[in-house]
Give the backbone structure.
Amino acid sequence: MPSSDSRGSSMPFASFRRSIMSIRSEQVHSVELNHDSTVQEIEQGVFQNLVATRFQELSVASGDEFLSIAWIRKLLDVFNSCQEEFRIVLSNNKELLLKLPQDKLLADYFDRAIKALDICNAARDGTGKIRLWQKHLEIVVSSLDSRQKTIGDGQLRRTRKSLMDLALVMLEEKETGTVLSQRNRSFGRHNKTKDHQRRPSGHSRSLSWSVSQSWSASKQLQSIASHLVPPRGHEIAATNGIANLVFTMNFVLLFVLWALVAAVPCQDRSLQIHFTVPRQFSWSNALWLLHGRIMDEAKKPECRNSNGLLKEIYKLEKCVHHLTDLIDSAQLPLTKDLMEEIKKGGEDLSAVSEVLKTGLTPLERNLKEVFRKIMSCRAEGLELLGSANQP
C-alpha cells in the first residue's frame, strides 16, 4: 500500500501550492478582460474562481484517494489558500468594510471562526486517537513475526490478546470519546496550571481553550451552519459584493469542517447537519458533488458504525476484523494455507500501520496551519473593525 505522505500523492504538495499562486494570476487576467469591472469586482471574481477551481480538483479524486489522509491534507490546503485570498481581499478593501452592513457580516464570520477553532482541536485529538491505534497495530504486527517459518501457540495467543486490546481501545473511543478529550492539546493555548486542570467540564462553548466532555462536534457544526443563507440581490448591491464574498468564505469554512468531522474521530460526531449547498455560485457544483460523495460513503454498511470515514480507518478496521476471524478459527497444528493467510493478514496490517505512521504527522501540521490561518485572519479583521470605533 503506498504511503499517504505527500511524496505518495499524485500531485506533490509543493506543486499543489504553486498551482494556487499560478491560478490566481490566470484568474486575474481572465477577470480583467471585462474592462467595465471595478477593482473590487475583479478581486471578488478571483476569489470565487479560486474556490471553484480548488474544490473542483478535490471533487474528481479517485475512489482510492477520496477521504484518505492525503486527500484530507489537500482539503485543508485548499482551505488555507481560500482563507489567504479572502484575507487579501479584505485587506485591500478596508474602507469599504468599515461601513454598515459589511462590518456586521465580518463580525458574524469571525464568530463562526472562533467556533471553528474548537473543531480543529477536536480533530487534533482525533489524530491522537488514531496514533494510539497505530501503536497497538505495531504490537499486533510484532507478535506475528513474518521471519518465523511457523506460527505456534504462543504467537497465536499474543496476537489474539493484542488484537483484543486494539479492538477494545477502538470500541471505547467509538462509544465514549473521552479517552483523549480530557487532555486536549490546543494549538493556540498552553496552560498547565492547576486552575486550568480543575476547569469545570460543563461549559457548552469551549472557545478552543479545551474540549470538555459535554462538548459536541455535531452541535458545534450546527451552530456554525445556523442562519447561514445566501445573500439576496439587494444585500449584494448594498455591500458592493462583500456579502457574496463573506458568505462564500463562511460556506467554505462550514464545508471543510463538516468533511473533517466526517473523516476523523471527533467527540459526538455526526454528518446529519442541516445545511444545503447553494446552486447559484461558480463553486456550487463542485461542493455539491463532494457533499454527495461523502454522504454516499457514510451510507455504506461497513461505514455506518465506523470511528470515521477516513480511508485508512476503514482499511484498519477491515484488516483487524479479518485477522481476528482467522485467529479465532485457528486450530493447531495450522494448515499451510491458514498459516499463509494469517501471515498475509499481518502484512496487510503492517502496511496500514506504516501509512498511518507516515501520514499522521503531516496531517497534524496541516491542521495546525488551518488553526493559525483562522486565528491570524480573525485577529487582523477584529483590529480593522475595532479601528472604526476609535475617534
About this structure: The chain has one domain: 6-188+228-388. DSSP finds 13 helices and no strands in the chain. Residues 6-188+228-388 form one domain.
